Please model this.
Amino acid sequence: MKLTIERTALLKALGHVQSVVERRNTIPILSNVLLTAGRDTLSFSATDLDMEITDSTNALVDVPGQITAPAHTLYEIVRKLPEGADVALSYSGEDPRLQVQAGRYKVNLPVLPAGDFPVMSSDGLSPTITVDTTDLMRLIDKTRFAISTEETRYYLTGIYLHSVVEDGRQLLRAVATDGHRLALAEMPAPEGAAGLPGVIVPRKTIQEARRLMEDAGETIGLRISSQKVRFEFGAAALISKVIDGSFPDYTRVIPRDNTRLMSVDNRLFAAAVDRVATISSEKSRSVKLAVEAGKVMLMVRNMETGQATEELEVDYDGEPFDIGFNARYLMDVAGQIGGETAEFRFADRAASATMLDPVLALDPTDAGVQYVLMPLRA
Model:
């Protein structure tokens, strides 16, 4: 294999694929990136066995060929080369190393055979569905904060991506929950999405796909089967196994009859929660909301560090009540509200004297998102 490639193009493609490679691997080949020099392109592939990212870019290829080299080391080498440099890559069976040369700089890297590199199959995937990049980014950004980090509840460690029909409309919906809060975002389903199997896309896959979307064009290709999902970003692609499990029936926990409405300035509310929570217990991060007509009092009492309160004006005209929340969960939801105002819908006291029923948080500027919060004992 022998070729020359511009440093910027090489760095961009390597940056796309190398992040999937784990820093520590018990299987040496998984620390490497597969380099494939074709007619006038250089292709890249990296995998952790659960997910694979590929990309390709133009190159001046003198001798086609394939080899694998250490992914992170190669990326760091290219990153430190001068901008605009031409990088020569060469490998021959006579010298079992990959030679990287740019100007007067030269380095030789250990290699492993390309034939040992595992490749994920795309068999069984649906035809490509074209999705607007901005819309798909929104689904991810509005929900991923609620993904569970508890590996024992593995079926919650991803985003549930599925199509639904609601009020006669076909929707593509993303849902994430950790059992304490739930985030739902939806968009009109793109053509071809109807009837696709619902899949739980793992957290790491979501993170990598979202990163690749930053360099994507206006649309992204999406292919789904009951076992895998594939995102296509022009020359780059990501294919991943999905979580083998059943996502819970989330519709049962979304409150439909919460009649008490409190509207509050979202920015002021988030800042106030953050201030009073400064002295809260690190374990529970509990903050109490005393809601009454026209105002809400935020309170935190800590036996060791003291007491903090702050009062805010709100739009509320019902009976007074107290309710408690994890402060971090409140701020996470506030961080997703795009408009100036956040709406909280609480259960009616007649139906819930303890005020421990789920609370619905809404963004008045985006009807396609819903957040559910489980209260703490106030």
Q: What stands out?
A: The longest helix spans residues 7-18. The mean pLDDT is 93. The chain has three domains: 2-116, 129-251, 254-373.
